[in-house]
Each structure stands twice: as structure tokens, then as C-alpha cells.
Structures
1.
Amino acid sequence: MSAPRSLLLALVLALAGWPRLAAQQRSDGVAASRHSAISIAAARIAPAVVSVNVVRRERALPRTVFDLFFLPPGAEQVVQGLGSGFIVSADGMIITNQHVVTGADSIVVTLRDGRNFPARLLGEDARTDVAVVKINGENFPVARIGRSNDLDIGDWVVAIGNPYGFLLGNSEPSVTAGVVSALRRSVLPSAGQAGLYVDMIQTDAAINPGNSGGPLVNAVGEVVGVNSFILSESGGNVGLGFAIPIERAMKVARDLRRYGRVRRGWTGVLIAEPGTNSDGWRRQSGVAVQYVAPGSPGESAGMAAGDTITRVGDQPVRNYLDWEGAQLDLTVGDTLHLAYRRDGEAHVVAVHAAELPSERAARVSLGDLELITVTPAIQAERRLLTTHGALVVTAGPEAQQTLQLRSGDVIFRINNEDITDADQVQKVIGYFRGRGGVRLWFERNGQQFWEDF
């Protein structure tokens, strides 16, 4: 065969195979384009995402007029709850939200592959809404931890969790994608809210029921936040989701695992909270110091009531949420460089954070009830109205059931006897026992209550 004829034959054969080759190239291109940064990030983190299944007992409340007459006193009902979490150590330590596991009688963690593990609560911190649970085992998949400080507004992020749990038929986590809508976002707390949501990451990635406690992930598959809550009038997602910065969550988790509590720093500087009927606090150019606890780091630094704090380090303090944000992440031994105004003059001081007075105080145990004496420093730390009494540090199931007390309550009177220290509680209850009924007065969330026994 001559050279021209062989070239012609090769050309014909090539043209004959071109449609198949072109189709294959198109197929390969489409397949490659399917794998975006979001899908890769989700694949990296998914094995470490878990479902957190909770069972708790709650007091049964009457729902109909018949319940008022036929519901037995003290009746309880079993309530199931669901949230998400992610594994942060190969031996099974898991971060989730405190509101997911609080009051749990039992906790079961479900891995992506469907395996179930009983879990125990290592610790919880209501102020940051972070909790740590532990499952037994080894070589569990671990989430890669990133830095929320590296985020920019507009960055892609992925929210992963288990919304609605087993209603969806399996334990495979759900993925929603969005962007970082805002950074350092603080939300005004509602009445009775224990958590303090300041310096949060705002995202429009959908966060639905059951997502709480799951990770917020950046485009390279690193956890940058803990999905916590949404703002919505209807209860459904409207694109306003909030996540706890991962640095805060990891610090709290380390403290909870090591100490069983958060070793939070304390300055002793109490600032005035805004009024509920005014939004003027949003336009402040600083926060007014209302009280400085005697013997506190703030007093040692020379601060006094009436000062106006304008800056912490290089961050402006525009309102009380900015100040609470600086306090929330404070560790024992940290130094705050505060700028403030006094009588029109500017000052800068260094305040060295100490351990919380309630953590240093001697504790009195009465069964599963732990009490400490209220001092001026503890009154300032806990924002208590009463100036005396016994603060409930922990209240176990028996104390909650028999005395109706919770952590954070302050016993300030028993019958007509004012309580001035924690030791006095046992003596007074012992005196009145057998001599008639006991009326126990206590403060809770700024209100006074009493119970008869």
C-alpha cells in the first residue's frame, strides 16, 4: 500500500472513532466537574460526624382540662431528643451542643456506618452551649480542626449533621452549603437563656432540627464552627444560622475533659446591661462600669464604678455584648488591656484574670447538693440580686426532685431565718425538721420563689 493510501486509511479510521472518543472526553469532563470543593470537603468530614440520641425524663404537664384532675402529682414522661456532633479524638471524644444533652438520662451515639455506642457526658457548659460526650473504643475517624479566625465574609462553608434523625431512614449525615454571611455576630439573649451567643459565625447554609452540635466546615474540610441555632419566626430555616467559633468550642472541650468544668477567667468588673424597652445600647460608644468587686483583678488595676470601657486590646467595645464576648473566652492568667474613660480622661490598664470566685470557694455537700456561701465577689460574678445566702453549685437528681432546686439558685431564707452562709443551711433544716413544715426561699434568674416541705 502506498504512503498516500495508508495516510488516507488512517484518517478515515480516526474520523470513524472520533464520536466515541469525543463522547468519552465529554463524560470524563462531566465526571470531573461533579467533584467540587464542597463535595470534597463533605467527604473528608463525614466519617467523623455522628448522631446524638438523647432520652430524658420531664415532668408531665397537663394539656387538657381532664389532665388537671387525672394526671398523678409528679407524673413524668419520657422525651426523646436528637442532635449531631463530631469526633475530635481517636478514643471517642465528641463535641456537641449543651442544649442537646442537658438533662439526659441516657445518650446513644450513632456513627455514619450505623454502629451505636452508649455515651457518657464528660461535661457541659451552658454559657457557651458546648458539651463533651465520650464513647468507648479506639481508632475512630477524627475531624480535622481549622481556624475560624481565617474566615472571610463570602467564604464557602458546609453544615453537616443529622436533621430529623432516623425519620430519613439511615445514619448518613446531610450536607447543606452556603457562605459566611457575617463574622463576630452577637445575638441579644432572650429571657432565661443560659447560653451567651457572642462573636458567632453567621451562615446561610441551612441548619435544621437535629443539626445542632454538628460541624460547620470550610472548603478544605476543616471544622471552623459548631452549628448551634437559627433565627426564624416560623421555626424553619430562613438563611440565618449561627455557629460557635471552633477555637472557643475546643478550649471548652479541653477544660471539660481535664477538669470537668471550664476554668474561665474573671476580672470582677460588672457592667450595666441594657434595658429591655430600649435599643439605645446598640449605638453606645463604650460600656459603663456598674460595679467592681472588692479584691478583684479589676480593683487591683485601679478601675472603679462610673468608668466607661471603650476598647479591649485592639477591639472596640461598643456595647455590652462586645464586653461579654471578651469575657467569655477569658482564661485564668490571661491579661486584658483595657482602654477606658474617667472624667473625660483616657486611661489604659492591664487586668490579669483570676479564677472565678465560685470555683475557689469552699463547698458544702448535702447529699447530691453542693453549696457555697454568697460573697460580694460571687454576687458580682453571678449577677445575683440577693447579697447573702447559699449558692447552689450543683444539684443532683435527688435534690432537684425533693427540694426543687437547680444549679444557680440561691437559698436566702428558710422559714423566718435568713441564710448567711452555706453551712447554715444544714443546721437550719435540721432544727426545723420534726417541728413542723419547712418553707425554703430561693432566688432563680432574678426572681424569688418558695417551696414548702
2.
Amino acid sequence: MKILVVGGAGYIGSHTARVLRSAGLEVLIYDNLSTGFDFLAKGFEMVVGDVHDNGRLLDAVKRSDGVMHFAANHFVGESVVNPRKYYCNNVEGGLSLLNAVVDSGKKNFVIIFSSTCAVYGAPAKMPIAEDTPLAPVNPYGVSKLFFEQALQSYDTAYGIRYASLRYFNAAGADESGEIGECHEPEPHLIPLALRAAAGFGPELELYGTDYPTPDGTCIRDYTNVVDLAEAHVKALQRLQAGNPSFTVNLGTGEGSSVKEVIAAVEEVSGKKVPRKTVPRRPGDPPALVADPTRAQQLLQWKTKRSLRDSVSTAWQWMQHRGK
């Protein structure tokens, strides 16, 4: 089988491409390189194209037996100040992909969708199970929920089976040190803290220390990127076996606060993280922690790698890149 990895030159897509190859599957990467990097796709066949390029996308779909969809903008703060970008790329671009699948006429085609815990908004109960009410509080979450609902509609009407994988905070890097998280600018806590510790970047900004959490900082479920990639392959295998569409959370089931992450960074790096407190970011819930029970039941999947493992591989990757 050949799997089309849309957004395969990005962070999670590139790691998933490697796990797919290790599982004996062919991979075709489709990426416009607007936020991805060609070196993350090194060694794979790649089509440089945009999801809005209907003809090129349709050709790539026709050459494939299934698709993993990672091509989306995914920064909460940016979505609040520039929602147009998120609805254009995440909603319109996603529909372009779905329509290409329909127009291809291919049968038994499956889609694995990179969704998010942001569809839940700011739920009062932790950990978050899949039956938690869906109430996103920012345009990013709204755009992802829209596409989940579009998948349901296309399954009903056209028989396109799918898996929506709602994951929490991806972290870490491939153990080889050859690929890892790479964003310009970098918005995520672990690489920012590592850069600050190493002197590669400015002091770390703590967005609020007055949240209703034990130490006043936000709590998130940091899930290793290779664990996430392995879950995508297991989801593909479940659909290939003829099972119906499904939605699951992917997470560790344990939350770590911003201050706990900083402590792990200091332990791994052996360096202090210079930091300062700044106002909260709009759209940031106090805590988001997964209940991964359904993923364990349906996919026989659970995380193998700890927060420290993620920080350690991210540190190795940063040193490999030299920034």
C-alpha cells in the first residue's frame, strides 16, 4: 500500500512517515513547504503542492491507497488574531482534500485525521474522555471540529472511513536525532525552554502564573511524537481490517505544568532556564489532560515514552541542529 501523507514535511507528519516506512508501507509526501521543511522529508518521494491545488492533489490521491492528513495551521494564539487564515487552510483546505478523495473514485479509501484536544475547549472535568462536550474556545479548535464533522458527513454519504485522532501536546523527537520539532517562529514550550537554557534564544516567557492549578501555571498532557506516530499506523491498520470510523484521544493520561516542564528541561540540559512572567494568552485553558482509555481498547496503544524522554530527545535534536 502507498499512503499519502499530507503535511509530511512537518513535525508530526515527518515522524509518522518514518514509522509508516518501518511498518513496510510506501509513503508519498504532499506538502507546500510553507511551514514544513524539505530536509524533514529526506529519503521520501514528495510532491510539492498545496491542498488548494485541486488538480495536483487529485493526482496524488489517485496514486495512493489512503491518506494521513496533517496539513493545517495549529497555533492557538495566532488563530485568535488571524482566524481567516485558519478557516481558509484548516476548513477550506480540508474540504479540498475530501473532495479529491470523492472525485478520485477510489473505493475503500481511508483517512487518518490529525485532530486536537482543542475541540473540547476548557472542560471542567479531567481527564478528558471522548464523550466530553465539544465546545472549542478558539478558532483553531473550531476549525478542527468542523473538519471532524465533515468527515462524518462524507463517511455517511460516500463511504469514506476515517479515524479522528485527538491528541494533546506533541513533544520530543526521533531517537536517531535526525529529525525533530522545527517551527519558525517556534511557539512550543519544550523547544523554547531548551533554547533559552542553551542561550540560543531569549528568556522563556511564562504566560500566566495565576491559573487555578497547583503551581499556578497551565497543565498539559505532553505526548511523545513517536508514540503519536505509532498510533497513526495502528489507526490505519484498524481501518484496513474493515472496522468502522472512530474517534479517540491520544495522550499519556498525565498532566505536567509549565513549571514541571521547566524543571525537566533543567535536569536534562544541566542548565538554568532564564524566564519571565507575562500576561496570559487568550484562548489558553488552565488544564488539558487526556483519558486515553478508548485508544488503549481500540488500538492496543499507549504511550511508552515519558516527559523526560521527550525533553531528552528534543535536547539531542536541538544540539544536532545547532539552534
3.
Amino acid sequence: MKKLTLTFCAMFALFVVAPAIYADGPERVSSKEKEVMQPAPPVCDFYRAHEWDLGIWAAYAFAADTGQFDVDKIDPFSPDEDPFLFDYGTDFFGEPKSSNPNERVNIGQVSKNQLFGRDDTWGGGVDVKYFWSRYFGVGIEGLGLAAKTNFAGGGLVTLTGRFPFGRFAPYVTGGIGFIDGGSTLYEFFNEKHQYSLQGQPFDTGFYVSNEREFYTVDPVSNNHVRALGQIGVGLEFRVTCHIGLMADFTWNFVFGQEDHPDKFHLITEQGQNTFTFFGLPAGSSVVINQALELRPGHGSDHQDFGMARFGVTFSY
């Protein structure tokens, strides 16, 4: 009887303790799993205080003053004593610069813009900024633009305010600096003479001339430093914590250069026509020709431009 009682007690204890043992088992396994799993690393701060930014960008620039002036195509010399020949042979050395057959006179301004020499152009630049806080930074910027046959480049000190949220940061920027170079298009009157020795059975040694007059539109370089001001708005997108994409638009003011307008200058040339008869001097006459030549001035007018920029930024 005692053995039966002990057997029932042992079975009762087993049924009571077994569920508790089974319940404790999964908790220990879950506890071990929690110890093995590591928490996810925190997301980086895309825009930080005490941050250095390097930006490299391409730019499309367009002039504030677009279009061209109509320049009258005239022979600027008045009167124009052109070379001529007599039937019996005539040597001539009368027209101005006849010994130098290249005659070239600036007759007027063509491009209204006086920086690019055209309405728009391409360029690029680089800037370095330091943000002392998450929102404000100072920097330096260098830019270059492909003016007509002449490089236009400059530099600025800039101040930038940005307003980051997530990966995006709209910003406003402004700066002051300088720009140099560029060009303006002018129209030129050109006259060229070609001389050749021609011989005949009874007369040798006189010249025959082939005269050609034509017009060209050529740039005149502007090699004067001018002040440059800049304001703009843009947007930056951070692809990673340290690499971003940027796009902005800036308006650029060129000012500060003393204004020297274009002026017309009177050219007076004197030569001599010498006539020969069968190779012998027969007479001569003095020839005086005059022309008005435009001499380009320089200043800072008609050089403002807009600029759209697209590039990549590196932050550290």
C-alpha cells in the first residue's frame, strides 16, 4: 500500500513539474536568440555642422544682352583712290598701305553682349565650402566660360544658407569677386592687293594688281579685370552620407570697371601714284585717303549673365 501511494505521488509530481520545465525551455531559447541578434546601426546625418564640401560642376551661361547690331557694309576710305592701269602700262604706289597689301579697318560693333561675344556659352567650375553649422557656410568659387576665342574666368568668396530635411537641402547663395577676359564681336573692312610681274615683247617690268574687298566679323578681346557679384538658389540631394548631386541657378552682375566707350579715329594715309610709259617714269601724283576707324573701349556694361549649374558634391 505504501508503494502504491509513493507511485501516485511520484506521478503527480511529474505531471506538475513537466509543464513548468517545458515552459522554461522556449524562454531560454528565445533569450539566446535575443543575445545573438545585433541592433541596426543608426542612419548617418546627411548634413552636419563643421562639414567641408567640394563641388565640381558644369555650367550653361546666357547673356543678358542678346542679339547683334546691323553694321553698314561700306568702304570706309573717302575718297578711295584705287589702283588702276593704263593701256601702255602704269606702275602705281598710290593707295594707302599699297606697299603693305593688307588693309583692315574696324567699322562697327556687332555683338550686343560684350563678355561672351555671343548669346550663350558653356563652362564649368569648382567650389569649396565650410559649414560652421548645419545651416550656414562660407566658401571660395572659381569659374571659367568659353567666350568667343577668348577665355573668361574669375573667382568669388561665397556665403551659403541651406535648409536640410532628409536627403534634400534647398539653399540660397551669394558672393562677390572678380572676372577677367571675354570678347566683343566687331565688323572689319578688309582690302587685299595681289601684285604680279608681267612681261610683253616690247614692254617688261610693270605690275598688274588684283584687288579684293571683303568684310569679316572678328572678336576683340577684353583683357580688363571687373568686379563680379552673384546671387542664386539651388537644391542638393545626398546619394550617400558623403556624395551628393547639386543643381542651381545664379545671376551674375559685372560692374566696377571704369567705362571707356568705343571711339572713332580718323585715319589719314598719303601715297603716290607713279605713271610709266614703256617702263620709263612719265609722271606722278600725290594721293591722300581718309577713313574712320572704330577703336574699341572697355568697361563693365552689357556683360551680366545667367548661369545654370549641374554637378556633384563631396562632403567630409
